[in-house]
Amino acid sequence: MAVKIRMKKLGRKHRPFFRICATDSRSPRDGRVIEELGTYDTSVPETDARCTLNGERIQYWLGVGAQPSEKVGVLIKKYGLNGTHLEAQAAAQARLAAPKQIADPGEPAFKMKPPAPPAPPKAEKAEPAEAASQPAETETAAAESAEQAEAATEQATPAEETPAAEETPAEEPAAEQADTEASAGEGGTETTTETKDESTG
Predict the structure, then answer these.
(1) Contact present, 6 and 23 (Cβ < 8 Å)
(2) What tens digit of pLDDT does each residue of 33-53 get?
(3) Whether the model pTM is above 0.70
(4) Could you report the per-residue pLDDT of 77-120, keeping only the tens digit for each?
(5) How far apart are the first and last CA of the chain?
(6) For the domain with range 3-97, which CATH number is right: 3.30.1320.10, 3.40.50.970, 3.40.1010.10, 3.40.1050.10?
């Protein structure tokens, strides 16, 4: 059986992820593997930190006669046990593990102005409106008082006229009393004359 060290593609669309595996050369690329020897992630921002290899196991399979693919051979040359980019790989991994430092952006190019305080002229404008409403209220009060005065005069005039109408009937009984007294006086004289005649007779 011929063993080959190559990449097995995983991940998703536009985000590939590779595993470096020892596989049978007759098996498909993404098929069954004999052993996983490392990873290669293209989404890592640091180029030297993308590849991680198990150098001892790779040396074993190379010693047994396994043949690496072209791309895996380049990665082994750079990041294997005696790789040329081991120091750069360690520095890149340290940068990724360190907390992110945000540079001082400096003073902003544009500063928002603080909101202006409420202007006092607005309050002064409100006062004339109140003053204008007060004369309107006084005018309405004066109109109402005038209407009440007219109503009072209309009620007073019939009250003054009624006594005059009542006076005429009061005069008539007085005249009737005078007539009755006059008739009574005449009757009294007759009775006195009659009594005088009887006394003489």
Answers:
(1) yes
(2) 999 999 999 999 999 999 999
(3) no
(4) 999 888 899 999 999 999 998 888 888 888 888 888 888 888 77
(5) 198
(6) 3.30.1320.10
Do residues 53 and 75 lie in contact, with contact meaning Cβ atoms separated by under 8 Å? yes
What is the rounded CA–CA span in Å between residue 133 and residue 139? Answer: 10
Q: Where are the domains of the chain?
A: 3-97, 131-190
- Check if the beta carbon of residue 66 is closer than 8 Å to that of residue 3: yes
The H or E element spanning position 111 is none
The C-alpha atoms of residue 90 and residue 147 are separated, in whole angstroms, by 104
How would you class 22 by CB atoms within 10 Å of its CB: exposed for 0-12, middle for 13-18, buried for 19 or more? buried
Which of helix, strand or coil describes residue 25?
Answer: coil
CA distances from 151 to 25, 155, 159 (A): 122, 6, 13
β-pair partners for 36: 21
What Cα–Cα distance (Å) separates residue 200 from each residue in 80, 133, 189, 196?
Answer: 190, 102, 17, 6
Q: Is 72 in contact with 8 (CB distance < 8 Å)?
A: no
**Phi/psi class of residue 169: alpha, beta or left (left: φ > 0; alpha: ψ in -120 to 50)?**
alpha
Residue 137, token pair as written in the block: 């209220």
